[in-house]
Every structure is written in structure tokens, then in C-alpha cells.
Amino acid sequence: MLNFRYPLALCQASTIKMKASLALALLPLIIASPAPVHKRPKPAPGLGDLAKRAGLKYFGTAIDNVVLDNDDYTDIAFNESEFNQVTPSNGQKWVHIEPKKGVFNYTLGDEIVDPSKDEGQMRRCHNFVWHNQLPDWLTTGNWTKTTLLQVLENHIKHEADYYWGDCYAWDVVNEAFEDNGTYRSDIWLNTIGPSYIEHAFRFARKHTSPGTKLYYNDYGIERVNAKSVAVQAMIKDFQARGVPIDGVGLQSHFTAGRAPLYSDIRAAQQLYTSIGLETALTELDVRIDLPDNANKTAAQARVYADSVRACVDEEGCVGVTVWDFWDPVSWVPESFPGQGNACLWDENFVRKPAYYAVADVLKRGAANGTRWER
Ligand SMILES: *[C@@H]1O[C@H](CO)[C@@H](O)[C@H](O)[C@H]1NC(C)=O
Ligand SMILES: *[C@@H]1O[C@H](CO)[C@@H](O)[C@H](O)[C@H]1NC(C)=O
Ligand SMILES: *[C@@H]1O[C@H](CO)[C@@H](O)[C@H](O)[C@H]1NC(C)=O
Ligand SMILES: *[C@@H]1O[C@H](CO)[C@@H](O)[C@H](O)[C@H]1NC(C)=O
Ligand SMILES: *[C@@H]1O[C@H](CO)[C@@H](O)[C@H](O)[C@H]1NC(C)=O
Ligand SMILES: *[C@@H]1O[C@H](CO)[C@@H](O)[C@H](O)[C@H]1NC(C)=O
């Protein structure tokens, strides 16, 4: 299979094949050119390498399907040294996975999961239950609590089974709370009641492969506030009643100049690590009020660095995922007009000061050496 997105893998595969079966045919060529053809320089450590040295499980990125035909993009996205974990931005969401009731289509998920498996990257899988990106058949259906719970379990069962063993973690429920700590009004809450959340976690435990980490994932919980405290109360209630849950994802969509401080992010994580859960920064990006300038870029680098440091220093935090690494595919400009440039690489695939600031934090984390055991 020729796959031009992965020239390195192709090169290594053909090297092995050459050794095994074509050595004789190529003998004259080998004698004529003594330098090994495929010898490459020792790779500089990428963020994934540095994260592991700092004791994290991963430094990861979200990947969207719309740029998979861009080799400059995929060379970075599917580079285990740079990102040893990937998260499909959209490919595993309900609207794509079950576009018709009971009809499952894993194409967009596989486009990201398959190459990441070839590259030896981990995956955070995203997501089973959300209020957004649902198919019309679901949002316009005339459901009862019983029938909608059947739809929910059937969806989780199929998708969990298809990606059996592929996911370090699943975001089981995404964004179920309002900022004031009340449950978000959506089809799930309005039809089933708040118990849809615990049902989703029980279905996920039942149908995912053993050891899969089950996460609640939300934005705006990176400080101690009404929302993050409501999430903690939900988890305490789950623990008291034996509802499975392993982790909380702090999405961490930040704005330079208005972002939570290092101490805020530490304190927010401790709401969850103090009751035995792991945490992760799952969708980190730091947008800038455009137009950009050197001061804003420097401020952005500080926010990235402080956020990653808040994970490295928090023993229960397993890793950081950026919500894409390349400005042109960021969700920010479309969702927040007037803001942008939120990622670690600019439009020319040049690493920004924020990239080097993150690398420095990870190097310092390795030097501090407080997390070697993990
Ligand atoms: C992968 O990323 C690392 C770190 O940036 C780099 O040194 C290495 O050359 C990259 N590998 C490929 C095949 O591009
Ligand atoms: C599955 O999804 C892909 C990507 O959206 C699409 O191209 C394909 O036609 C779908 N397959 C079926 C059988 O609908
Ligand atoms: C919705 O379902 C209920 C109970 O099954 C039924 O009484 C009602 O007529 C249905 N409404 C529509 C618009 O189909
Ligand atoms: C909480 O916020 C939601 C969304 O803004 C709003 O609809 C609801 O009324 C608020 N509830 C309280 C108790 O403030
Ligand atoms: C950048 O910051 C420096 C020092 O605070 C200030 O003097 C300068 O005016 C700022 N430049 C811009 C473009 O904001
Ligand atoms: C490393 O140690 C310093 C000094 O104790 C501390 O302030 C910092 O947060 C630690 N972690 C990282 C990742 O730099």
C-alpha cells in the first residue's frame, strides 16, 4: 500500500523488505555506495518526547479531517515524537458515526485513528454524549425516556465496540453543565433527566475495553467556580453510588490576557484529584485579539507555559492536548470573530514562541524529576 502521507514509515518498511528479500539484487548498489541510504539524523525531541521525560503520559493534538490531504500538516500531526497522542476533533462525533438510526459509519474516525495506530500514538476518543453535532433523526425524534436511553446505549455499544482497545480514554459526556452550575438544557436532560449522565458512564464501562479511562469533559472548569464545583459534586455522588468515572478533562480554551492563572488551574484540578480522579488539559488553545503583535504573542506563550506547567506540577494530571496545532484549522476565528492565531504553529508551519515556551516547561519538568514513577 502506497501512502504518501507517511514517507518515513514507507522508507522503514521498504528497508526491512529490502533486507529480507532484495539484498542480493541490490548487492552491487550497496557495494557501490558505502553510506547507509536510510540513515537519518537523531530526531530532536518533540513535545511528546519531552512530555514523557517530564512524567506525563502524553502531549497530544486534536486532528480534523479537513486537512488530511495536506502533507505538511500530516507530517507533524502523525509524528509520535511531536504528539504521542491524538484526538479526532470531529470524526467520532455522533452526527458522523450514526448518521441514520442504527446505521454506523466509522470513515471519519478511522481516517485519524488508523494512521495514529500505525505511528504508535495513543488516542483520546471524543465523544459519546454531547448536546451538539447530533444528527437530525435524533434531535427531531419523538422520544420517551425509555426509547432515548435505548438509542444512547446502542450508540455507545457500537462505537465502543468498534474502537475496542484503541482509546486510552473516552470523553463519555461532554459539556453537561451551564456556567452557573445547573445542568445544561438539551435533548438528553429534557427527555431523560440528569440521570442520562450516569447511564452514559455505566454504558461506557459496560461496552468499552477494560482499562479505558472514562472522562467527563467541559470548558470553563479551569478555575474553582460554580461549574467546576458542580462537576465535583456530581462525581462525589457518582462515587457514593458506584457510578464509574475515572477522569475530568479541563478543555482549556483560553484567551491571552484573560486566562486562568497557574494557581487557578492547579486548584481546579485539585477538586478532582483530591477525590481520586485523574485530570487532563484536553483542548488547550490560547486565542489572541487580532491583530496580533509581539506583546500578544509573548503573552500567549506565557499562558501556554503556565497551563502546561499546571499539568506537569499536578500529580494526577496525565497529559495535555492542544485543540489543533495549526492556526488555519483552528475553530477559533469562526467561533470568535476578531480573535485567532490560537495554536502553536503559524500558517507557514513555523513554530511560535508558545511552542518553545511549552518545550521549556516540559524540559524543566523533567529536570525537577518529581514524576518519574509515572
Ligand atoms: C518528528 O518530529 C521530531 C521533533 O520535532 C523531528 O525531530 C523529526 O524529524 C520528525 N520526524 C519526521 C519523520 O518528520
Ligand atoms: C461514510 O462516511 C463517509 C465520510 O463522510 C462518506 O464519504 C461515505 O459515503 C459514507 N458511507 C456511507 C455508506 O454512507
Ligand atoms: C409522540 O409520542 C407519544 C407517545 O408515544 C404519542 O402519544 C404522540 O402522539 C407522539 N407525537 C408525535 C408528534 O408523533
Ligand atoms: C443558569 O444558566 C442558564 C443558562 O444561562 C440559565 O438558563 C438558567 O436560568 C440559570 N439558572 C440559574 C439558577 O441561575
Ligand atoms: C509592548 O509592550 C511594551 C512594554 O510593556 C510597550 O512599551 C509597547 O508599547 C507594547 N507594544 C505594543 C504594540 O503593544
Ligand atoms: C519545577 O520547580 C520549580 C521550583 O520548585 C517550580 O516552581 C516549577 O513549577 C516546577 N515545575 C516545572 C514544570 O517547571
TrEMBL record:
Pathway: Glycan degradation; xylan degradation. GO terms for molecular function: endo-1,4-beta-xylanase activity. PANTHER family: ENDO-1,4-BETA-XYLANASE (PTHR31490:SF35), GLYCOSYL HYDROLASE (PTHR31490). This is Beta-xylanase. Residues 50-361 form the GH10 domain. Belongs to the glycosyl hydrolase 10 (cellulase F) family. It is an enzyme of class 3 (hydrolase).
